[in-house]
Amino acid sequence: MRFISRFRKHRFATPVLLLVALSSIGFTFSVATAATVNSKSQAETSALIAEGQKLFLAGCSSCHGLNAEGGGLAPSLIGVGAASVDFQVGTGRMPMADMSQQAMRKKPVYNEEQVAALAAYVASLAPGPAAISNEELTWERDGNIAEGGELFRTNCAMCHNFAGQGGALTQGKYAPTLMGVEPKHIYEAMITGPQSMPVFSDKTITPEEKLSIIKWIKAAEQEKNLGGATLGRVGPVTEGLLAWTFGLGLLIGIAVWLTSKAR
């Protein structure tokens, strides 16, 4: 007590006590605010998951099961993560009426909020790749077109065509065109491997390399077509064969017509 009494009348005692008081109030306020934000965030997440579960039971459970365990018509969704749901539902591939055919990109049935709710519900069932937004992908700043083109030709061109126009696969399947696809859906496809596409983990293609691939695809998308119809950019051999067949057929037709007139 004597120690405290001795320093109580010191000239720096009041500023020090004021600083301690202000620091205590600030710390208490920060803790209380963080607790409130976390509580609000958890409440919003719970509400989003509950909304997603309602949507799932109404539109997805008939094929994927009441608990997303899968069945004879559709696979299990446990562990696929929010990224898979965001890709499949956000591109309109799901829901689909005929599960025996390959899912096609079409106008989405659900809006963005509903897609986010479905993704949150499926993500709550088991850990999996997280969904990503276009704003999170800094492909315009961090991507490298030259590197992206090389990576695309090495890993993607055998299915999607060297210009990203898509191509045929075995057993009636096909790799869709990448033109007009949102960057986030390209990224999510690489980390989830939808349908016949393999999963490209971060060890196989790093996140930075994925951004470069997206940048190259977007550059190819904006590339002008010089010289008329591109014919899907399937290459000079196929394009030449088409021109040769059409030209030869036209000459044969003219010869037959001239012969018939000569008679």
Can I get a quick summary?
With about 260 residues, this protein is mainly α.
Structure description:
The protein has 263 residues and is mainly α. Among the domains are: 47-130, Cytochrome Bc1 Complex, Chain D, domain 2; 139-225, Cytochrome Bc1 Complex, Chain D, domain 2 (Orthogonal Bundle), CATH 1.10.760. Helix content is 59%, strand content 2%. A two-stranded antiparallel ribbon has the order 1-2. α7 (145-155) packs across α10 and α9 crosses α10 (207-222). The protein is elongated and about 120 Å long. The N and C termini lie far apart (132 Å).
In order across it, which strands form the biggest sheet? 1-2
Please provide the count of β strands: 2
So how many helices? 11
Question: Please, what is the average pLDDT?
Answer: 85
What key phrases describe this protein's structure?
single chain; 263 residues; mainly alpha; Cytochrome Bc1 Complex, Chain D, domain 2; elongated
Secondary structure layout plus pairing:
Layout: H1 2-8, H2 13-59, H3 61-64, H4 81-90, H5 112-125, H6 139-142, H7 145-155, H8 157-160, E1 167-168, E2 174-175, H9 183-192, H10 207-222, H11 236-262
Antiparallel strand pairs: 1-2
Helix pairs in contact: 2-5, 4-5, 4-9, 7-10, 9-10
